[in-house]
Design brief:
The longest helix has 10 residues. It is globular and about 65 Å long. The chain is 5% helix and 40% strand. It contains four helices and 28 strands.
């Protein structure tokens, strides 16, 4: 049976009778995550809350052959220094890093080194990249000589698995050593995005970490700094993403224009667990792309981008069973909600069974909470010229609970809910969604929303 992840036992159960979520006792939901290193073979369920039971993974993964493992007798642990890495931020260390990855099951980036590299390929299954305290990887700085995909103009990610989609990867770990000095001591992957951002979409920009068609993946205690584009592109089954920092243009809060497309934890797939992550960037914090199922993100902080926890409709795919819990959003376009990623004519799928609970929103530019099936942001909260068309994205069973909007930006609304005429957003639940500062001045803009409300101020969509 598919797991139903959400909380809010305080809601009237009759109201929720049609909901597809499995309502869990609040006591069970109190969970403090502590990272414990595990062997690659350890079950995914041992790393996530006991009440988050896995669902069947993408059929695409089951049908793909695994990438080959290392031959028997290959070294277990290798330092990139033993393969020729210098770590002085001047000498290129790409070949040393790639040779270590090709040879060893676990590759160590020694403390204190600054390793200048071009893109490297995670060439086999069952691989660990272990970064000691203060180890730094710096991305190649010459834009014109960045490596491209074979036969194309797209740029290779800095770290990547098979881009062809023909093989799957199993057991990938990217781990930063625990230190006592806080973020300043964290192992870092620095994309030097400030070299790329001024070009916007006028030229391709690479992703820092691209792990796709993968199973049993762990990303822990890493700082991803100034990515040229998305910090991560993570697709597959059974991912745990914990205690990481994404920093893009950390010196200011310039938003999208200053650091465009710098998504934090860009995910899609089945059985993802995210805990205690942080992002300060110019785009989404935790964007969950369809198709996805069984996603749980908690204890997250977002600064300065477009959204913190957001679900995103893509094509005709389904996204379901998603929980965002204990999320704080500062100075974003929107706090939390739902949007589309493509031109509206191409998004006809379903988003269902999503909950945002224990949410704090500070000074959003456009809206505290939102659903927009037509465009990406809430600043355009109006119907298109043909809202009665039958092939809009469908949104149902979405719950906003215990949401505190502490203050609004000068032109922001409490909420934007913008849905199609023939396929309205249905079973949208508001439970204690409150504007704490001047609630009488707050307002919603709503089109075609079938909703229930309990204890929200101001009342939504009236």
């Amino acid at each position: 049976m598919t797991v139903r992840m959400t909380m809010m036992m305080m809601l009237d159960q009759q109201q929720l009778g049609s909901c597809r979520l499995l309502w869990l006792l609040v006591a069970v939901l109190v969970f403090v995550s502590t990272f414990v290193p595990v062997d690659c073979e350890a079950a995914w369920s041992s790393r996530v809350p006991e009440y988050m039971t896995e669902v069947a993974s993408f059929p695409e993964l089951a049908s793909l052959p695994l990438r080959p493992s290392l031959p028997q007798g290959a070294p277990e642990n290798c330092s990139i220094v033993d393969y020729g890495a210098v770590g002085n931020n001047k000498t290129e260390d790409t070949f040393a890093v790639q040779n270590a990855i090709d040879t060893c099951a676990s590759v160590i980036f020694p403390a204190g080194g600054v390793y200048l590299i071009r893109p490297v390929f995670l060439s086999h299954s069952t691989i660990t990249l272990y970064f000691e305290t203060n180890a730094t990887v710096v991305a190649w700085g010459d834009l014109d000589t960045w490596n491209k995909t074979s036969g194309g103009d797209d740029l290779l990610p800095l770290f990547f698995t098979d881009l062809s989609g023909e093989t799957a990867t199993e057991y990938v770990k990217v781990i930063g050593e625990e230190g006592s000095g806080g973020p300043a001591e964290m192992a870092t992957i620095d994309g030097q995005g400030w070299r790329w951002w001024p070009y916007g979409k006028s030229r391709p920009r690479p992703v820092l970490m691209y792990i796709t068609n993968a199973k049993n993946v762990e990303l822990h205690n890493m700082r991803l700094k100034d990515s040229p584009s998305w910090n991560t592109h993570l697709r597959g089954d059974k991912f745990t993403i914990t205690s990481n920092r994404v920093e893009a243009n950390i010196e200011s809060c310039g938003g999208y224009d200053a650091a465009p497309n710098t998504d934090g934890y860009n995910i899609g797939g089945t059985n993802f667990y995210l805990n205690k992550n942080f992002n300060h960037n110019g785009d989404d914090g935790i964007p969950v792309f369809a198709p996805s199922q069984n996603i749980f993100a908690e204890n997250h902080v977002s600064y300065c981008g477009t959204n913190s926890g957001v679900v995103i409709g893509v094509g005709n795919y389904t996204l379901q069973d998603v929980l965002f819990r204990n999320i704080s959003s500062y100075y974003l376009n929107q706090g939390v909600g739902m949007k589309i990623s493509e031109p509206q004519n191409n998004v006809t799928g379903n988003i269902m069974n999503v909950t945002w609970d224990l949410i704090d929103v500070y000074e959003p530019r456009y809206a505290g909470v939102y659903i927009n099936v037509f465009v990406e942001d809430a600043n355009d909260c109006k119907l298109p010229s043909d809202p009665a068309r039958t092939h809009w994205l469908t949104a149902t069973d979405l719950t906003f609970s215990n949401v505190n909007i502490h203050s609004l930006g000068s032109n922001a609304m409490v909420g934007c809910f913008n849905c199609g005429t023939t396929r309205p957003c249905s079973k949208i639940r508001f439970h204690k969604v409150n504007l704490l500062q001047n609630p009488k001045k707050g307002h919603y803009t709503c089109h075609n929303v079938l909703f229930q409300n309990e204890g929200s101020n101001p009342p939504p969509c009236y």
